[in-house]
Every structure is written in structure tokens, then in C-alpha cells.
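Case 243 in the screening queue. Each case pairs one protein sequence with one candidate compound; here the compound is S-adenosylmethionine. For every case the pipeline is the same: read the inputs, emit a complex structure as C-alpha cells, and attach any notable structural observations.

Predict complex for case 243.
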Amino acid sequence: MSDQQDRIYATAHQQVTRFSFDDTVVRVFPDMIRRSVPGYPTIIDMIGVLAARYAQPDTCLYDLGCSLGAATTAMATLTADQGNRLIAVDNSAAMIRQAGTLIAETGQSERVSLLEGDVASMDFEPCSMAVLNFTLQFIAPDKRDALIQRLADATLPGGILVLSEKIRFADDAENALQTELHHAFKRNNGYSDLEISQKRTALENVLIPETLADHEARLRQAGYREIHVWFRCFNFISLLAVR
Ligand SMILES: C[S@@+](CC[C@H](N)C(=O)[O-])C[C@H]1O[C@@H](n2cnc3c(N)ncnc32)[C@H](O)[C@@H]1O
Ligand SMILES: O=C(O)C(=O)C[C@]1(C(=O)O)C=C[C@@H](O)C=C1
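Case 243 output:
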């Protein structure tokens, strides 16, 4: 079951605990992410479009921090009959369990390997596409350079990384405005001020955003030849990095 409405922070919690991708979150995840991330459905659709454009025949495609496999399914659907193997990884056992059920329902299980594991410590096979769709932000900052470097090293010439992140802005006024606009988006999607504020507390020191410049510098340093911002809404962006 993962089709319930997100009401996790609707009532006052005595103590707001650190956000984690457990069973409670899995049950509401599709609703939570759609109402929390501006443009999420578009980003998923466009990951499919990017797969159709950049996935090379008979190569691996990675979905890292796959949650319920939305990006995996988009990539699999738009690369049918190309001989690609999809490797979807998440370190939440609850997510992986439910992702397995959902991917089986799409009939794509044969091409998809679902792995429970930490993407910050895994070795990558040669691949033509990797997706980090709102995952890097949850990985300890001191592990991010090494992860992106290992991914860049595993990516075939002409292959890509799609990196989507919540970002912060170096300028305090800009940061405050973009954060306020994101909260207005959440309010417009039915979240109350209490829900917004408790979720924000739960995400503190769990989701650690960096600036666009930080992301671009890391990607360039790792050896990506081209870096494009292809999606942006308020403090949410998605980058296309070409190897
Ligand atoms: C915001 S969700 C990603 C959404 C998903 N990519 C999508 O497009 O629907 C972040 C996911 O990253 C996973 N995650 C966080 N840290 C991870 C790590 N070190 N290794 C693997 N997965 C991780 C979480 O369990 C969670 O499922
Ligand atoms: O809800 C928020 O305020 C968020 O920052 C959104 C966000 C994300 O960017 O990953 C945070 C956690 C949930 O997984 C879903 C969405």
C-alpha cells in the first residue's frame, strides 16, 4: 500500500523526530513527494525523455535512491527493446519492498535489478545513464565528492547523470524568498502551516542542501564535459551532466 494521503505531520508531535524513509513514509510517499516537490511529475516524465535520448543500447542504467521506482519505470518504459538493464538502489528496506511490488505490476521486473544498499559505498558497473533524483541531498556532504567521482568514472563517453536537488542560495534574501515560495506551493497543495513547519524540523540536518554553484563545481571536477540546468522551480533544480 502506498497510495494514502500524507498526514504524517498534520497533528502536533510532542517531539518531531528525524525524518526517515520508513514504512509510515512509504505508505504516503507518492502523495508526499507530488505535493512537496514542485514539478515532480514533470521531472519523472522528462527522465524518461532523457533516457530515450541518451541511454545507449545494451548498457546499464542506474536509479540511485530509487524510492518506489518512479524514475526506473519512466526509464524502462522509454528504452523498451534496447537491451538496457536497470539497476535501482535504495538503502530503505521499506522502500525496496514496496518498489518490488510496484515494478512487478508494470511487467518490467525482468529488466530491473532492485538492490537494498548504500549508494555512497557501492561500486558501479559501466553505465550510460545514472539518476540521482532528490537523493544526493540525503547523503553526508563529506561523501558526495567521492560518490560523484565514482559515478563519473563509471559513465561511458556520451553518457549522462541526471541530478535533481533541493538547493540553497548563497544570498540570504534570495534563499528566504525561494523557501517562502516553496512553502506557498505546499500550502496550495493542502499542507497546513503546522505540517510545513514540523516537516521542516524533521528534515533539519537530514536533507542538507547545497548551492547550484557547489553542484556544478563538483560535477565539473569529476569530469562531466557539459552541465545544463534543464529544470528549475523555486529551490528545486534538475541538472543534466554529460560525460
Ligand atoms: C526523495 S527520495 C527519492 C525519490 C525518488 N528518486 C523518486 O524519483 O521518486 C530519497 C530516497 O533516497 C534514499 N536514500 C537516502 N540515502 C541513501 C543512500 N545513502 N543510499 C541509497 N539510498 C538512499 C531514501 O531511502 C529515499 O528513498
Ligand atoms: O517536503 C519538503 O519540504 C521537501 O524538502 C521535499 C522532499 C525532498 O526534496 O526530497 C523531502 C522529503 C520527502 O522525501 C519528499 C520531498
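Case 243 observations:
- The chain has a mean pLDDT of 97.
- The chain has one domain: 1-243.
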